[in-house]
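INSTRUCTION: Work out how this chain folds

Token vocabulary: learned, describes local backbone geometry

RECORD BEGINS BELOW THIS LINE
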Amino acid sequence: MSHTVKPHLDSHMLPVFARADVAFERGEGPWLIATNGDRYLDFTSGVAVNALGHAHPHLVAALQEQTAKLWHVSNLFTIPEGERLATRLCDESFADVAFFCNSGAEAMEAAIKMARKFQAVNGHPERYRLITFEGAFHGRTLATLAAGGQQKYLEGFGPRVDGFDQVPLGDLEAVKKAIGPHTAGILIEPWQGEGGVRAADPSFFRALRQLCDDNKLVLVFDEVQTGMGRIGTLFAYEKTGVTPDIMALAKALGGGFPMGACLATVAAAAGMTPGTHGSTFGGNLLAAAAGNATLDVMLKPGFFEHVQKMSLLLKQKLASVVDRYPNVVNEVRGDGLLIGVKAVVPAGDVISALRDEKLLTVAAGDNVVRFLPPLIVGETEIEDAVTRLERACARLARTSAQSEAV
């Protein structure tokens, strides 16, 4: 394929994003300031990334200090701050070891490879398949797309990567039927974020843990979105009543700096020896500084209690809006500060109307609007956000009534 004349393009960015026509130049806590000076209340948080808001002073200081020293040396050498971060994450979780990478998809790829390798080194290389769940989202690589199983993301990219068997979320009998001689483990999100803010009952997670124990399978949790405080505890698995063998993290791990991690027990990671996996940039000095600074803030006494308090307030306020505008929104779901509002009108219309009110939210599956404020959000910002939602709903309700009248 050759071209002699280049086409005229308004943007030279690959057009894979449906970007809103607004750009930001700085941020302050839960606020973003656009290039034209308009202030937006940010209940998207970079899609659950900016857990500590924008320009958090502790994160800024940590990165500024590290930036002046050293950025990157590669994983050919010891990175003390990375060792410290791995120790802290393991001390605060079920895990014994951590692998650092740059994104949620990479963290999930590491988890998938680890689950397969576990079976191989334990004498069962034929066990390579993972049971996954309808509505899941695990990333944009070819393997993680296959794990998620959503046809709209798989279309046009050739044969689906083999090794994933999908069943309905919460259907224990379907899980049991899916377990076969080639099954390596079970992969699940504690809460499906992209899938519409949905979760199975805690009893389902306990049953999965028992199935894994009984069949010598690996239980893998995708906590890319739910981890690092989003659900009101450092990790969402703490609320399920079970511990996984492997867990993927990203998004909020670096407080806004690109970073992912795969955490595991020593037993689950037994096959991951030198040369079996790697990352050029993963866990470099800037990422380690960001990760440690994020943990510094989150592990302070009262941090998660604040998240839980704000969660209760936000859900109560949103439920009140649902009661008043049932023709626009009709359900509140979620936990912590991963909150979804199921819309009656198209969710995109709600998100657009909220953006007109200078409130930023993000879509999810099942016609859901996600509210993902930074975890440091206060009562004043929640009240403000709900007021903006009420104005948007009132306008959408009027538009809907006018359309029906016509």
